[in-house]
Structure formats: C-alpha cells, structure tokens
Specification:
Length: 356
C-alpha cells in the first residue's frame, strides 16, 4: 500500500477513527476480521487488527527525519532499520503521540557503497517496523500520524531496492512471533532473512482457525512467491479433527488452485506439551496433535500436487528445551533454530523447483 509517498508494507488498511487521531495499521481488512471466530470465541477480531509485522518504508536524502506514531492499546516497541541494518528501538506508550527523531547513519558515507549492498534491502530504505507489546493476550496496534523530512523529497522504495522473493505466512502466535523478545527474532522473520525474502505475515495469535473468510482472503492475496501455512495448534479444543481437515483442505486447495506454479509449504504442529504430557490408560488413541498431523498428511497425500510440500514441525523445532516455560511458544533460541531449519527446507524446495 502506498500512502503519501510511503510504502505501508504488510498493511491491508489504514483505518481512520474520528474519535482518535492517526491512521491505524491493520494487517487484515476489517471486513474479513469481523467474520473471524468460532462461536463465542472471537479473539481473531482484535488480533486481526494487530500491527505487529507491519512496516513503513520510504527513501529520502534528508540527513534526519521525524516520524510520529502512537500505540492504541498497550505499550509496545517499534524497530528502525536502514535497509537490513538495525538502527534503533523505541517504546511507544499507550495514548501518547510520540515523535521519533532519527539521524541518517553517519558511517554509511565513510564506506564504499558496494560494501553496504549485502542485505535484502537497499541501505537507503528507511524501515519503521512495528514489533510487539509485552502484555499477554493483547495485540499491539500502532497508528501513523506523520513524517517530516524537513523539506527533502520522500518516495516509496523502488522494486530494485526491495527483495525480489516474497514470502506469505499464515499460522498461530508462534508464526506471529510470540516467545521472541522482539519481532525480528521471530522464526518466520529469520526464515525470510536467510532466504533473502520479503515477508507478508498474516499469522493470528490464538486465532488461526482457517475460517472461510480468512481462507478466501489468503487465496486472493497475491504478490507472493512462497507460502508457509502453520496449521492446527489453535484449532485444538475448538473443533474435532474432521472439522479441522475440512477447513485446512479448503485453504490449501484454494491456494494451489489459484497459484499452481508457486510452492505452498504446509507445516504440522510444532512440538509442545501435548506431545509429552502424562496420559492415563483411559485416554487411548493418538493425542490431538497426532490426530491433526494425520489430517494434514492426508490432505497432502490426496492432493498430490508437485508444489504442495509437507514439513514435519518436529524437523523445524528440534530441541524441546528451546520452548518457553509455557511449553508451546519458542524462546529466542527456539525461534533461531526454527528460522535456520525452515530456511534450509525451503531452499531445498526452491532448488528442486529451479531444476525442473
């Protein structure tokens, strides 16, 4: 999305509310968000408005800039990058409109330009990345108020200043980055970095339920080269394995039908407490994680599509101690492991695809 000569990446809507200033950055359209949920469980309706993973991108020759932002629900952080080079981190306080004064990196002018051209992004691209808050259960939403370049022109990045490879992700809070201390530590962010890819992160913490409205939105999203779907963990306890399979199949079938030449990576549930919890003899049968995994295996087997790939979540998160104490979300170390392993898997898929 381009607004006022800036690119709002991973932003589906800039929402204006007459009762509060600023433009709220929504990752998913409100018309879709208002259809999310299962019965009375409608967490996705506010998680879908979270700005975590959204970015404001622009290029200017101004030696310094000021950008004005606010947090609407809880305090949270924004990360500033120049290309892929980390610049600074800033805490936004709820209900306070804050202006960040940012100086152009002085040492960039002291080195050969080609030395800086090592990342995915051109180093002249300012990236204001919405990170996360630290209050359990609430999504971090940020609003944009304005940019001041002090008389210097501003423009959105050109295509040659951005990563050519685009990665679309949908999944649970794990894919949205929960457990990582900052957004750039999230495994899917690290996967994108290792692949040299740009990321559209549409994960919904505690709310990845594959509703038809959400599935249709993802099927129609476009603009991506590889899709990663982490499905199942949020649907346990809300529906049985049969309903899970029905919803997952609708999404997966739709994506490979719409984009038959693009790899879709289907990831089974990552290791968690249900894999190892104490069970009585009365429990019987496979646990819910195994049941859902078997349904994903069936979808993969039935569709038998050359660009649909099934990845075992246990091959991505290989160390159970890399979880946090809730035994479901990865720690920073866990996210690092996952980013490395998933990138290796996808690199293999891309290589195979190029050889065909």
């Amino acid at each position: 999305m381009i607004y006022n000569q800036m690119e709002f990446h991973n932003v589906a809507e800039l929402e204006r509310n007459e009762e509060m200033p600023g433009l709220r950055m929504n990752r998913i359209p409100r018309g879709v968000v208002h259809q999310l949920g299962e019965g009375e469980y409608q967490r996705g309706r506010f998680i879908g408005q979270a700005s975590t993973g959204c970015e404001i991108r622009f290029v200017t020759d101004a030696p310094f800039i000021r950008i004005t932002l606010s947090a609407t629900v809880e305090d949270g952080d924004v990360l500033v990058y120049c290309g892929d080079y980390f610049h600074s981190m800033h805490r936004l306080r709820t209900g306070i409109i804050q202006t960040l004064h940012l100086d152009k990196p002085a040492r960039f002018a002291d080195v050969a330009p080609e030395a800086l051209q090592k990342g995915r992004f051109a180093p002249g691209v300012w990236r204001i990345v919405v990170s996360r808050n630290y209050y359990p259960g609430l999504a971090f939403q940020a609003a944009f108020h304005g940019l001041d370049t002090f008389g210097h022109e501003v423009r959105p990045p050109r295509e040659d200043e951005l990563p050519p490879l685009k990665l679309l992700a949908y999944g649970s809070s794990i894919t949205h980055g929960s457990g990582a201390t900052v957004q750039h530590q999230a495994y899917i962010q690290q996967t994108a970095r290792r692949l040299g890819a740009d990321l559209y992160n549409k994960a919904l913490g505690g709310s990845c339920l594959c509703e038809k409205a959400m599935a249709d939105y993802l099927i129609g999203h476009g603009g991506w080269d590889i899709a990663v779907l982490e499905l199942g963990v949020n649907m346990r306890g809300l529906m049985d394995a049969e309903e899970f399979e029905k919803r997952a199949r609708y999404l997966v079938e739709g994506m490979i039908r719409q984009y038959p030449d693009k790899p879709v990576v289907l990831v089974t549930i990552y290791p968690n407490h249900d894999d190892v919890r104490k069970r009585s003899s009365a429990d019987g049968g496979p646990n819910i994680n195994q049941q859902f995994t078997e349904r994903l295996e069936r979808i993969h087997r039935d569709l038998n599509h050359p660009n649909l790939h099934l990845v075992d979540g246990h091959d991505v998160l290989t160390d159970f101690s890399a979880l946090t104490v809730d035994l479901i979300h990865p720690s920073d170390y866990g996210h690092t492991l996952m980013g490395q392993h998933l990138a290796e898997v996808i690199e293999g898929l891309i290589g195979q695809r190029k050889q065909v």
